[in-house]
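> call design_seq(struct)
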């Protein structure tokens, strides 16, 4: 079953309000989408987050390796593509992973089974963690605490809050207040705020005794 068409698109969806994550200002939610179409019309889809990388161009660069490839030999096709990119594998690895997902999607459709069943179906449920505390720079601790309380009322088993990252004392008060809602069910993310081990350690030491959950 040959691939006869490869379709690629880059999408940038503006956010209603920019999000400040440490030194990074996020104004759009970006996606790279891939579709491979086989001779019998079956198609496989995949999408990824570029996160500021050249993912679209990398997928485009490796696409010729998959033209006319036999989807039934998915692993062999991928290994051959990796072999041709030995010197640049670190940068194109994510691009190749999109083709891996798209080819697996074709296989699942041909077998008329979802991937989790073909892979082994280890679990029937996966816990979900909600994320709270965006726009912290314009909100107070009490407002985020109420947001987290509402998330638990909705049934989420865990929640992750976004730390300020630039004020260890504030982050300690903030994390302590939110953690008091459901001890051990709150995780924290400093989103690229620290540039040195000393900065990270200053906050981590203040948070050690709270018993925060792992992300």
């Amino acid at each position: 079953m040959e691939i006869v068409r490869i379709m690629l698109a880059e999408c940038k969806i503006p956010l209603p309000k920019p999000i400040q994550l440490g030194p990074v200002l996020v104004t759009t939610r970006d996606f790279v989408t891939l579709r491979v179409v086989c001779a019998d019309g079956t198609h496989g889809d995949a999408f990824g987050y570029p996160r500021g990388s050249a993912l679209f161009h990398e997928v485009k660069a490796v696409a010729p390796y998959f033209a006319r490839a036999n989807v039934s030999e998915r692993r062999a096709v991928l290994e051959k593509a990796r072999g041709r990119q030995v010197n640049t594998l670190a940068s194109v690895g994510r691009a190749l992973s999109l083709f891996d997902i798209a080819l697996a999607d074709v296989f699942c459709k041909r077998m008329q089974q979802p991937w989790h069943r073909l892979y082994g179906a280890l679990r029937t449920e996966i816990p979900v963690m909600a994320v709270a505390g965006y726009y912290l720079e314009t909100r107070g601790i009490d407002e985020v605490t109420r947001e987290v309380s509402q998330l638990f009322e909705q049934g989420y088993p865990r929640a992750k809050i976004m730390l300020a990252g630039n004020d260890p004392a504030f982050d300690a008060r903030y994390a302590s207040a939110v953690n008091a809602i459901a001890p051990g069910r709150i995780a924290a993310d400093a989103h690229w705020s620290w540039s040195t081990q000393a900065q990270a350690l200053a906050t981590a030491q203040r948070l050690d005794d709270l018993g925060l959950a792992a992300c």
